[in-house]
Amino acid sequence: MRIAPIVLPAPATVAAAIAVAVAVCKPLVPCAAIALCAATAQAQGDGSAAGPFPVSQRTVTVTRTNGSSFSAQIRYPATTSTASAPFAAAAAPAPAVSFGHGFLSAVDLYDSTMDHLASHGYIVIATTSEGGLLPSHANFALDIRQCLTWLEQQDATPASWLAGAVDESAFGVSGHSMGGGASALAAAADTRIKCLATLAAAETNPSSSAAAASIQRPSCFIVGSQDSIVPPATTQNQFNACDAPRILTTIAGGSHCGFVDNPIIACDSGTLARADQLAKTRALMLAFLDAHLRADAADFAQVWGGAPAVAGTTALRDARMTSALSTGTIEGALDTVVPVAISITNAGPDATAFRPRATATGLAIEFQPAESAVLPAGASTEITAFVRAAKPGAYTATIDIVRVRDGAGTSHPLSATFTGGNGVSPDFNGDGRVDAQDLAVLLNSWGACSGCAADLDGNGSVGAADIAVLLNAWG
User: pTM here?
Assistant: First the structure.
């Protein structure tokens, strides 16, 4: 579908043409959010691969508000992989995840998952409490939360090895089975928690399904399709009850014990090999956490649907909003700005504003307005993206619509083709650059020149408007 372009007026003189061309490179809409895409967007890598940091481990003592204490294991990006190594300064301030183990499951069973996150710059802390036959789910949730308090205390203590290392604005919680349900209880009760990612989350007492209705932050519920211990329908009850932006991701052939590093008594198994399930789990968790604790646009597109999903997984998404582009394909000439309308509806239950952003290479995309007004549940609005290119070519972009309230949202691909007015590149001598030599060719063709290469806007003559096209492609 071709969207009608906004054509820039042709200047009357060469000097005016240069002035207009310079102006085109400035924001087209005052106070608009600008996505200047000269730099290449970071490619989406394999999220299951280890990150750049060595991982170290410590056992720490966490004190509860009543004065009692429990031990917790902490994995973190370090200078070396030896035990109790110094924190890697390059990772500071680091987002943090508090992790809950499964019923009768040692924390060590989750080494690979915790180490993976730590290698990507996360602090992961896992309480060892409530490991007996009669665990208190309510107390377990409190301990998961208290681990975050311990991190805050260490971050603020000058003598601590974690002083200044913790990003206290980027806390998440996670857990497997019982720990998944308990982390949902924690997320429902603690406003410091910015997102929740569970693995085969079990129903708890008090009910994690009931608590999910109070969760205010993006939540990702990951399950194995062949889980015979906590059937996917159990976790889906939590997904269904959750009023926050939510995702239910199913790993085909995955089992309950496929989320742990080694089999334990009464374990199940699925058709998917354990190593493969763990690799998919690592990729899913890292993408979700990076999208919400680091505001990473590439991971946001994977999580919320604008990029290919992890192979062998399916996702049921409800961002608590809907959005749509007026078209996913646009065409234009270099002297045009092509508008794309974006319709947005807030599905609630809470009011929020919406902020658009774009990721692309070779395109400049500006938004008007830069952020919507706060919309109550059920209300709709429209934002316009203005797209232009500096050089002829075919381009791809991703446009995200982000809920300001919680950082969730929707993601849309956009394809764009820009040409000179007659489909000819202003690189007349073919040296890969648009420069003074090409400008000389254009000036030598000045005037009536139907069909010639220098007639970049295709109007039958070479004039100031063609200079504007050439200057837009300069470099």
Answer: 0.82
